[in-house]
Design brief:
Blueprint lengths: L7 H11 L7 H21 L3 H10 L8 E2 L6 E2 L1 H13 L15 H14 L4 H22 L2 H4 L4 H4 L1 H13 L3 H12 L18 H18 L15 H5 L33 H13 L7 E8 L1 H7 L8 H4 L3 H11 L9 H4 L2 H7 L2 E5 L1 H6 L6 E7 L4 E6 L12 H11 L5 H12 L6 H9 L4
Parallel strand pairs: 3-4
Antiparallel strand pairs: 1-2, 3-5, 5-6
Helix pairs in contact: 1-10, 2-4, 2-6, 2-20, 2-21, 3-4, 4-5, 4-11, 5-6, 5-9, 5-11, 6-9, 9-10, 9-11, 10-11, 13-16, 16-18, 21-22
């Protein structure tokens, strides 16, 4: 017999079904627009990577109803194909937004799914904004409850929980009732997947995780609309996601201030095209070089002291053999930052991975952990950077939080500058149109945005 108390998914479903755009505080609307702009930019730039090209070539070869825009393609494709391809492109640079308390990238699953689904249903920008904010809400709250245990088990939270956010967003767009929404969330939970072995081998295909999550979100909603019933205890049931994928789940506070405190406000953006766990190291090294007028040729060696998750994700490879692998190397990405003065999206190319001077410094960068940074994680994702110069000088700095976190925020101007940097391969007229529509998304239809995006095709 079913329990009378609502399950976790039923409680989220009830909340999603009663929320309206007018219930969103203006700062939430603004943050949602800026995060949408950010993801559009990294998706555009991600098209240059090999795996998105492989995906696009395959999906555009298939037949299907023309519903939604696939970035970099002139025609439209089925919405589930657009969500898959755009989700893959958005994560290809590892430059998409994230939430440090959950170890998760919500936007890369939610926004591609919501954008494709809203386009297929010819909805408004206000409806899209509400849907995106709701998708972030369920992903970040559940990721915070499950981590770090979930990550430590080897699961990629963006893939395993991204499905819930994609389904929530598309369920809001579809106008599902509580029962349908609960089923959609339950169906999506069955499809959550993502193994972190790709950090050690096969990193090219890591973006498959959020792409599949976005696609599964749309699929789950369409199945629920047609009467499919998902398990309402898909999370906390004896064989549910919690028991299967984590050793510890902290449910106290899961629904605290729901509808008042919106977790999308705690989202960070990346200003470097590398794994987030390296950003404090990069920020610290660049600040030392700037403050002390050091050149690349002045540096003898670098010591990075950080927290165990950072070294687990990014400390095993010093000389990567692929551009994707370089994004997960503290030593190589830090050496690259010292050489170029930045770690922008175009730095990760095969020629740079093989650069002899960067390789030489990378061999002299050591990453370790200490109790201070271990104890403060995830409240702080910090690092201490010590630079020794060739003339015997030493310089050190502590970076508790990289730029882009809510406590060390990126400004709207930073968001816009990043978008422009990520879209330099297109004309100013095209990118300005995308920028203008996104920044005023609540005054536009989704079609206005996707028409602008369609101009990005070759």
């Amino acid at each position: 017999m079913r329990q009378t108390q609502d399950t976790i998914l039923e409680q989220f479903a009830a909340f999603f079904c009663q929320m309206k755009f007018e219930d969103l505080p203006q700062p939430v609307v603004q943050k949602t627009k800026m995060l949408t702009l950010d993801l559009l930019g990294v998706t555009i730039a991600g098209l240059k990577m090999e795996f998105p090209r492989i995906t696009k070539d395959y999906l555009t070869s298939l037949k299907g109803i023309e519903e939604a825009t696939l970035f970099g393609h002139e025609g439209k494709v089925p919405a589930i194909h657009a969500a898959l391809a755009n989700g893959i492109s958005a994560h290809a640079l590892d430059m998409d937004d994230g939430y440090r308390y959950g170890g998760v990238h919500a936007g890369v699953a939610v926004i591609p799914a919501a954008l494709a689904y809203a386009e297929s249903k010819q909805l408004s920008g206000k409806e899209l904004i509400l849907a995106i904010a709701m998708g972030y809400e369920i992903i970040n709250r559940i990721a915070k409850a499950m981590n770090p245990s979930h990550l430590n088990r080897g699961f990629h939270t963006t893939g395993t929980l991204g499905v819930l956010g994609a389904a929530a967003a598309c369920g809001v767009l579809a106008g599902l009732n509580k029962e349908q929404m609960t089923s959609a969330l339950g169906i999506s939970a069955l499809q959550g997947a993502g193994l972190l072995e790709i950090l050690h081998d096969g990193s090219m295909v890591k973006p498959l995780h959020p792409g599949k999550a976005a696609m599964a979100g749309i699929l789950s909603v369409e199945m629920a609309k047609r009467g499919a019933k998902g398990p309402v205890t898909a999370l906390e049931g004896p064989k549910g996601l919690f028991n299967a994928m984590a050793d510890e789940v902290k449910l106290d506070g899961l629904f605290d201030n729901l509808g008042v405190e919106f977790y999308i406000m705690d989202q960070y953006i990346k200003l470097h095209a590398a794994c987030r766990h390296i950003h404090a190291s990069i920020d610290g090294l660049l600040s030392i070089m700037t403050d002390n007028e050091l050149q690349f040729s002045d540096i003898a060696d670098v010591s990075v002291t950080t927290y165990p998750v950072a070294t687990s994700f990014c400390g095993s490879t010093v000389l990567p053999d692929t551009a994707e692998g370089a994004k997960f190397s503290i030593a190589y990405s830090t050496a690259m930052a010292a050489f170029y003065g930045d770690v922008s999206e175009d730095r990760y190319a095969p020629s740079i991975v093989d650069h002899p001077e960067i390789q030489a410094l990378a061999l002299n960068i050591r990453a370790t952990t200490n109790d201070r940074w271990t104890a403060s994680y995830p409240r702080e994702r910090g690092a201490t950077i010590l630079v020794n110069s060739k003339v015997g000088q030493s310089f050190s700095v502590d970076v508790p939080l990289a730029k882009g976190e809510p406590e060390n925020p990126a400004s709207d101007a930073d968001f816009i500058a990043k978008f422009k940097q990520n879209s330099t391969q297109y004309s100013d007229a095209i990118t300005t149109k995308v920028l203008d529509v996104t920044l005023a998304l609540d005054q536009h239809s989704v079609e206005d945005l996707t028409k602008a995006l369609s101009k990005l095709a070759p």
